[in-house]
């Protein structure tokens, strides 16, 4: 066999049979080519730049309370990196359970989108399905003490 070095996949060593190829599948081909020394050096440079960008404070970012890095949307990071749901994260750090974790400018931007694309009409239409005060089915979830304080203060303001 004149081409013996190509009888097995370069990555996993799986026999390739009669084919004149170097990899048993596309995943192994991409794995091999993305780990070439020249690419690895570029990847390290990009990671340093990216991590420095994440680590720095910015008024339009929120800090992850688990790892200390700054993100535009912490919820996505929490799910992907720490394998926690947003609710678990908020309960763990005693934050409001029913309120999203977004910087103020992004919250305003999303509010504008809701008004522009008509989603707000769905909220108005769904109002007939809201619970009535005193309904036994309402409020079955456990509210955080921060939410309870906010509701208590809101109730005080209405009675003034």
Give a verbal description of the structure.
By secondary structure, this protein is an all-alpha fold. It has two domains: 52 residues, no CATH class; 78 residues, no CATH class. It has seven helices and two strands. Strands 1-2 form a two-stranded antiparallel sheet. A hairpin with a 6-residue loop joins strand 1 and strand 2. It is elongated and about 80 Å long. The model has no long low-confidence stretch (mean pLDDT 78).
Q: What is the count of structural domains?
A: 2
Rg from alpha-carbon coordinates: 26 Å
Number of helices: 7
What percent of residues adopt helix (DSSP H or I)?
40-55%
Mean pLDDT across all residues, rounded? 78
Number of DSSP-assigned strands: 2
Tell me, briefly, the overall form: elongated
The main pleated sheet reads as: 2 strands, antiparallel
Structural class: mainly alpha
Distance between the termini: 92 Å
Give the SSE string. HHEEHHHHH
Brief characterization of the structure:
The chain is 50% helix and 2% strand.
Pick out its properties.
7 helices; two-stranded antiparallel ribbon; mainly alpha; 2 domains; 160 residues
Architecture blueprint of SSEs:
Layout: H1 26-34, H2 37-55, E1 62-63, E2 70-71, H3 74-82, H4 86-92, H5 104-117, H6 119-125, H7 145-159
Antiparallel strand pairs: 1-2
